[in-house]
């Protein structure tokens, strides 16, 4: 049995299949951890979502900002849905859209396996959040996502503010938690997220730090695997394993094995070029989805650092670490 964590798929179905073949994924005995952002931009988001759904008994998914955007789109009127990009439109117009979106909405924001010694989150953790606190705060939002009031949450989750603070309440609190878990890259020691800073370390606004290097951060008792930050490239530092290597931008799709003492990294090339989305009309639902054998923002300008080996960052500071407006989706 093997446990593999996989970086952001972003609708790259063919690339995902090649990676599953390369790791020789066997659904009879292996488990996959998907770090979020299953959909958007890759041109094959419907096929990718169907694939991951078909593997639901053998996988764990945490939601990324693009997944939340899709869910919010799915909760809108048909007229509003027609305004979204063709890659997401194919999902919300598909005959199995309700089955897919209902399942996606029931996924978590944080996954923890203390026996294995790992935590998975899409983007990052606030400086003062222990792993236990991250689970607790994620669960607050998951209750809303999984309940009858999820549409109201989607209407209120957009925006860059407020920054996280323990005394927040209502949708301000939910929005701050979502932004930390699904949008964070850089932050200040007090937890303010640098939403607009998306490049490699050294390019950010003064006073901002990579979330896993921010001074004064708490010690964490689990290794963390995350995605979201394609410009960072494969980065392993202080217990954090960042594995979004920009498959959708022509970088690589990365998997790391979690249940071994030695780090094992497997990669396949991402999309050759940004491909145009296929016919916007959704294809008929396949009679049987076969998993692999036994197996619109500024980030586009930041070239992914996927082609080099893992970046092992110098330790800094204290302890080990282990959309905007009502119409725009969360950025990233």
From TrEMBL:
It is an enzyme of class 3 (hydrolase). Its EC number is 3.6.1.41. It catalyses: P(1),P(4)-bis(5'-adenosyl) tetraphosphate + H2O = 2 ADP + 2 H(+). Residues 1-156 form the Calcineurin-like phosphoesterase domain. InterPro entries: ApaH, Calcineurin-like_PHP, Metallo-depent_PP-like. GO terms for molecular function: bis(5'-nucleosyl)-tetraphosphatase (symmetrical) activity. Residues 273-332 are annotated as: Disordered. The keyword Hydrolase applies. The keyword Hydrolase applies. Residues 286-300 have a biased composition (Basic and acidic residues). Keywords: Hydrolase. Belongs to the Ap4A hydrolase family. PANTHER family: CYTOCHROME C5, PTHR40942. Hydrolyzes diadenosine 5',5'''-P1,P4-tetraphosphate to yield ADP. This is Bis(5'-nucleosyl)-tetraphosphatase, symmetrical.
């Amino acid at each position: 049995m093997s446990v593999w964590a996989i970086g952001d798929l972003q609708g790259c179905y063919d690339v995902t299949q090649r990676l599953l073949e390369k790791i020789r994924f066997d659904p009879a005995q292996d488990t996959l951890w998907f770090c979020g952002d299953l959909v958007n931009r890759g041109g094959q988001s419907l096929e990718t979502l169907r694939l991951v759904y078909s593997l639901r008994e053998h996988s764990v998914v945490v939601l990324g900002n693009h997944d939340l955007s899709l869910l919010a789109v799915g909760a809108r009127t048909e007229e509003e849905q027609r305004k979204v990009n063709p890659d997401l439109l194919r999902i919300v117009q598909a005959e199995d859209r309700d089955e897919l979106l209902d399942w996606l909405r029931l996924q978590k924001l944080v996954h923890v396996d203390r026996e294995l010694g790992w935590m998975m989150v899409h983007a990052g953790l606030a400086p003062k959040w222990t792993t236990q606190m991250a689970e607790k705060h994620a669960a607050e939002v998951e209750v809303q996502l999984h309940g009858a009031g999820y549409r109201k949450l989607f209407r209120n989750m957009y925006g860059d503010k407020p920054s996280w603070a323990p005394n927040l309440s209502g949708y301000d609190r939910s929005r701050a938690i979502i932004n930390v878990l699904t949008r964070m890259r850089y932050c200040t020691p007090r937890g303010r997220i640098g939403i607009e800073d998306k490049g490699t370390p050294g390019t950010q606004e003064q006073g901002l730090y990579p979330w896993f290097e921010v001074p004064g951060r708490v010690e964490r008792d689990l290794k963390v695997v995350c995605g979201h930050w394609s410009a960072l490239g494969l980065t392993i530092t202080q217990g954090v394993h960042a594995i979004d290597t920009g498959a959708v931008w022509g970088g690589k799709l990365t998997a790391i094995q979690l249940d071994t003492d030695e780090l094992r990294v497997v990669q396949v090339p991402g999309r050759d070029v940004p491909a145009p989305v296929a016919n916007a009309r959704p294809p008929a639902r396949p009679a049987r989805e076969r998993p692999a054998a036994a197996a619109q923002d500024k980030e586009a300008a930041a070239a992914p650092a996927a082609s080099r080996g893992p970046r092992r960052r110098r330790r800094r500071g204290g302890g080990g670490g282990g959309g905007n407006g009502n119409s725009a989706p969360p950025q990233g």
